């Protein structure tokens, strides 16, 4: 078994506090807004210049001029503000966000992140990922454990161009939760229901330590 994307988003949402300023990346991270615990309201920021972004609009209510950084139509919560991208990036670079939650193509055991380009594949641009991983005090990655070809996405070293070095604090995959710490490196904290340690070792290239409950072992997956 494995966690669904909604369950992955709920795990990330559980550590967000009421009133936090948060940037949610494209893909699975956008689901966090619908998985927040009762009584927790966060202020969503978008790199293109929105603070106080609301949920996605209902079909037929879309405003094509109101979009997030991923060019998805969005709504504004009461009290939201809109400003230019220069001010938005100053907000990010100044460390004013509490958390950034991003997707990933690869994460290394040291917390390096590659999430913006595959060489030879056309992309529209870098976006704000480099600024977010440099400016946000905490970075969480939500990603599938392996890619579409079954290759590990948690690696000893990233093979794709980097977004940032040693910037990821937590990785939540469909199979497990890992923390990346300065002292212990990559640490396995939680397994999805029905997933075994052997499965994680087979699907993970990165070296990791296992600290689940009272268990502590060293993992060196092949």
- The CATH topology annotation reads as Glutaconate Coenzyme A-transferase
How large is the share of residues in beta strands? 25-35%
Distance between the termini: 22 Å
| Parts with pLDDT < 50 across at least 5 consecutive residues | none
Number of helices: 4
Physical arrangement of strands within the biggest beta sheet: 4-3-2-1-5-8-10-11-12-13-14
Based on helices, strands and strand pairing, what is the structural class? Answer: alpha/beta
Helix-strand pattern: HEEEEHEEEHEEEEEHEE
Q: Mean pLDDT, rounded to whole units? A: 91
The counted number of beta strands is 14
Mind telling me the C-alpha Rg? 18 Å
CATH homologous superfamily heading: Glutaconate Coenzyme A-transferase
- CATH second-level architecture: 3-Layer(aba) Sandwich
What does this structure look like?
The protein is an alpha/beta fold. The protein has one domain: Glutaconate Coenzyme A-transferase. It contains 4 helices and 14 strands. It has helices spanning 5-13, 85-93, 129-135, 197-203; strands at residues 21-24, 43-46, 50-53, 76-82, 99-102, 106-108, 113-114, 139-142, 154-155, 170-172, 176-181, 185-191, 208-212, 215-219. It has an 11-stranded mixed β-sheet, with helices on both faces. Strands 7-6-9 form a 3-stranded mixed β-sheet, with no helix packed on it. A hairpin with a 3-residue loop joins strand 11 and strand 12. It starts with a helix and ends with a strand. The mean pLDDT is 91. Belongs to the 3-oxoacid CoA-transferase subunit B family. This is 3-oxoacid CoA-transferase subunit B. It holds the Pfam family CoA_trans. Keywords: Transferase.
């Amino acid at each position: 078994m494995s966690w669904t994307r909604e369950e992955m988003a709920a795990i990330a949402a559980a550590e967000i506090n009421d009133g936090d300023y948060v940037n949610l990346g494209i893909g699975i991270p956008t689901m966090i807004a619908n998985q927040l615990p009762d009584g927790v309201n966060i202020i969503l920021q978008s790199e293109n210049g929105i603070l106080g972004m609301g949920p996605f609009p209902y079909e037929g209510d879309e405003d094509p001029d109101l979009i997030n950084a991923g060019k998805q139509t969005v709504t504004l919560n009461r009290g939201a503000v809109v400003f230019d991208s220069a001010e938005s990036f100053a907000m990010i670079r100044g460390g004013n966000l509490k958390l950034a939650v991003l997707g990933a193509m690869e994460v290394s055991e040291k917390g390096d992140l590659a999430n913006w380009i595959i060489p030879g594949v056309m992309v529209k641009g870098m976006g704000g990922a480099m600024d977010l991983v440099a400016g946000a005090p905490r970075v969480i990655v939500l990603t599938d454990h392996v890619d579409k070809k079954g290759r590990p996405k948690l690696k000893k070293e990233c093979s794709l161009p980097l977004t940032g070095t040693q910037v990821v604090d937590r990785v939540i995959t469909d199979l497990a939760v890992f923390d990346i710490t300065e002292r212990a490196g990559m640490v396995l904290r939680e397994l999805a229901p029905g997933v075994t340690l052997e499965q994680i070792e087979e699907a993970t290239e990165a070296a990791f330590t296992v600290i689940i409950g009272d268990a502590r072992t060293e993992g060196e997956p092949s």
